Amino acid sequence: MSNIPDAYKKVPMMFQAQTNGRCQLQRLDPDRKKDGDPQDAEIWCKQWTGETYPVTPIFEEPVKTREYSISWRFVTNSGQDDGVIRPVIGASGYPFYPGSSMKGAFRQACKRLFSDRLGKYCGQEISKGDFSPGILRFHGGYPVDKSWTNGLVDLVHPQQERQVMSSTAKSSAFIQISLYQPTIQFGISASEELDESEWEEIWQIWETAMGRGIGCRVSAGYGHRDQLKGELLYPPHLLKGQGMASKRLDESGEFRPNIFRAAIRGHALRIFGGLTDAETAKREVERIFGGVSGHGVWGLLMMNFVTTNFESKLFGNGQWEVPSYKVEGELGWLLSQEISEEHKAALKNLILHLNQFAMIFGGFGKSWRRADHRLFYEEYYEENNYRKPLIGCHWQWKKGRYARDVKVYGSKYVTSFLDKLQEAAKIWLQLQNIKLTTSYATGWREAWHPDKVMVWGRIASNKESSEAIQWLHGAYQKRDNKAQVPELSIYKSSVTGRVGQIGRLWHRMYPLMKLEPDPNDSAKKIPKPTASYLELLTIFPDGSDDCLNFLKFLADDGQFKQLWGKPWEIE
Amino acid sequence: MYKKAYGIIETLAPLHVGAAAGEESGNLNLIFRDQFTQTGIIAGSSIRGRFRSDMRSKRIEWLESCLSNVSNDFKDLYLAKDDTSYLNWLEEEVKKLGQSLECPKNLDEHNWYGHHAVEGRPDGGTTEAIVKFEYASLVWLPVFCPGQPVVWISCPRLLKRYKLITGCDAPIPKPYTAAKTLRGRQISDRGTAKQILFFNLGFMEIEQQIEAEAMQKWIPQGVDLAVESFVVVGDNDIAMLHDMALYRQSRIKMMDDMKKVDGGAFFNVEALPEGSVLIFPIALKQSGWKPFGDDASQDMYFGGLESVGFGRCHVTLAGDYQ
To answer: Which of B146, B189, B259 sits opposite A336 (nearest CB)?
Structure first.
């Protein structure tokens, strides 16, 4: 054996123990991040990808192949390391989608689509314990080019508890290794000659299988194709939005479509938390979206977001520079399993309302509780030469399904929308045999109950005329010594929050549509965009003086009207 | 007396030849290993079985061609009966037509690989095979280790068998030999210029370097491998390095209607990785054996888990077989 100085430090990370001081793939070390040192996962990936075999594995005749691109991230858990998800690594160091996974997914799709061909394609039991093989062989998949080596380190940052349930809950980021937008070549061969038409059918089954996502974490948007196909619950929502992109470890930006699911899942928890006790609410949310309780809960719904247009750029100057994006796309929900028609209808109605709720009252991704300051408070950046943090995000519906999605055309629509949302949630919960009582998740910071939350609204005639955005940065009431009026502000209070503390107020500028008669059909009305906005303040009062003073001010000021929640009374 | 030939197998996908899944009590499906080097093998019986089965398919095609003069829809006729195998049914139908079941010799698996046992005949009706197979052993095995290029390893003992089978005249390289062109792991702060590789045993220095042409002699016929990737390691080390190189996969049984593990159904499988090169000897009592027609090579499947892509191999025949 050779004499190598500090040999133990040069052992590849893949062969080091998953323990502190050796290799901890899943751990994000904040000190290293501060010092700009690479994390273990980054070193691991660099070692992995550095010397893989120069030739991409390909399938040759008689294996039939097709290539499919993945809309966002893709991972098949190799199960080789404890506590961290990382891909299966095949020969020559290439990430590999195993044939066994492919066969499993194909089998389930084949059973749904052409159950009579299942035995022929995938094999079957012919007598007790005796099996006949199927004619197909599933060779798995490899990425088609070297681009898979980019963006492997995937940061996962669970926030549900901190955002919905408890202000003091800690949250930390974890690392996972997944492929970023790979194009994968899949191979299938048959033990006998098949007609072209039969191959078409086989690929159709495979595409159906891919329609539900492949690999793991599919319910969170991993492993979906770059186009929506197959069994959507209803036609997708067409959205466009802008905001601050998530940062990778190397500080580059990444638009992560799982922001939609995270937001909507969080809202489901708020709504359920206002209707039933905390434990039931959590359990019922897991039933819909999946979770890790007990032996794991397979969620009824899977999300898929397909980007149709994307721009990314940096925003801000100097230390304030952050990656930001503009995106347009189609947000779809798929049912992952068979449920009764009654349940399906109720779930469809519920998720539809939850999507609308997310759009009406907030946004998606970072800073979703704030209206986009670039649009509604331009002077904030201009005055400081863009030396300010990017605050807020802005989302709106894209033309196409206005009639279904917009729902709120003015202040008065808010109340009835929220009533309908609660009704949809109640119907779903009752179908799950849950008795609705008056006890709800009172301990949560954001349970959606009239005693816990207030919605105030006004019409802003254009994007410059937001009232509330100023209050987030200075006094809403100026000091007047003569009239003995003190200065009052919610800036940096518990109401608005500060760094490390989530506020209790959501500010949203919802683009207003108006309903105009349809020239082709006088009985119908069609939504048309306007220049004005519905300015909404959603407040979860915490009983502090800052909060009470502010609510009093809102009521006295008279511009905002309370639209939901227990009516505010000045004591 | 015997004509000597051999076959070279290059795996195009992971190769698992071992006990059938479910027959083992544990949850790790191991591959068969040879008892001396503990490296993966393909049993001679598995090789013969595959050749026999492929030739049987050709005989079935021949039987079908006998019937196609009579009827085009005989497959439908067969489907109506499910108490007999397709082959038996075809034979019965051909007999009914008064035709002989004797097919051209080069399509008759009983002729080349021995007749299977038949009830009521003396000695079970078995015959001696014309073609005899021995087990396939590894010649080169690829190892991927992060931070260094993929290398193909072998050891003196495996190369000795290769030499015996092929009649290669090169001297067997000593342990820790590579071609001068080998590119190892880059470690800058070291005194010596010798190439270093990392395996799960630790860091390994290449002790002997030979000319690329000398290493070239150990590349089997029909195999496309580059000499700068070859490393010969010690007989004592090959077992452990082999275990590092194996393809391993955890497999689960999914619920039929749900993307969720069915109970605790979970097992592991190991396989020789794709790019492995094996050799097996063939002895023939007579010439004229043309399992691949006029070609010397063909794709074949060996071992289990064929339906999930395992066992696809490229087989090249060499020596005195035709």
So the answer is: B259
Radius of gyration (C-alpha) of chain B in whole angstroms: 24
| pLDDT by residue, tens only, chain A of 571 residues | 457 788 888 889 888 888 888 888 888 888 888 888 899 999 999 999 998 888 888 888 889 999 999 989 999 877 777 777 888 888 788 999 999 999 999 998 999 889 999 999 998 877 666 778 889 999 999 999 889 999 999 988 888 888 888 777 777 788 889 999 999 999 999 988 899 999 999 999 999 999 888 988 888 889 988 876 767 899 999 999 999 999 888 888 999 999 999 999 999 999 999 999 999 999 999 999 988 777 778 889 989 899 999 999 999 988 899 999 999 999 999 988 889 999 999 999 999 999 999 999 999 999 999 999 999 999 999 888 889 899 999 999 999 899 899 999 999 999 999 999 999 999 999 999 998 888 898 899 999 999 999 999 999 999 999 999 999 888 888 888 888 888 888 888 888 887 778 889 999 999 999 999 988 888 888 999 999 999 999 999 988 888 999 999 999 888 999 999 999 876 5
3-state secondary structure A308-328: EEEEEEEECCHHHCEEEEEEE
Q: Is the dihedral of CA B142, B144, B149, B153 positive or negative?
A: negative
Q: Is B26 on the interface with A (CB under 8 A)?
A: no
B187 contact residues in A (CB cutoff 8 A): 4, 10
Tell me the shortest Cα–Cα distance from B3 to chain A, in angstroms: 32
Provide the whole-model pTM. 0.87
Measured from the Cβ of residue A431, the count of other Cβ atoms closer than 10 Å reads 16
Nearest of A387, A557, A403, A401 to residue A470 by alpha carbon: A557
| ipTM for this model | 0.88
Contacts of A111 in chain B (CB under 8 A): 256
Q: Other CB atoms closer than 10 Å to residue B95's CB: what's the count? A: 11
- Would you say the C-alpha torsion A543, A546, A547, A551 has a positive or negative sign? positive
Instruction: List the structure tokens of A161.
Output: 């508890």
The shortest C-alpha distance from B9 to chain A (Å) reads 16
Judged by CB atoms within 8 Å, which residues 403-462 of A form the interface with B? none
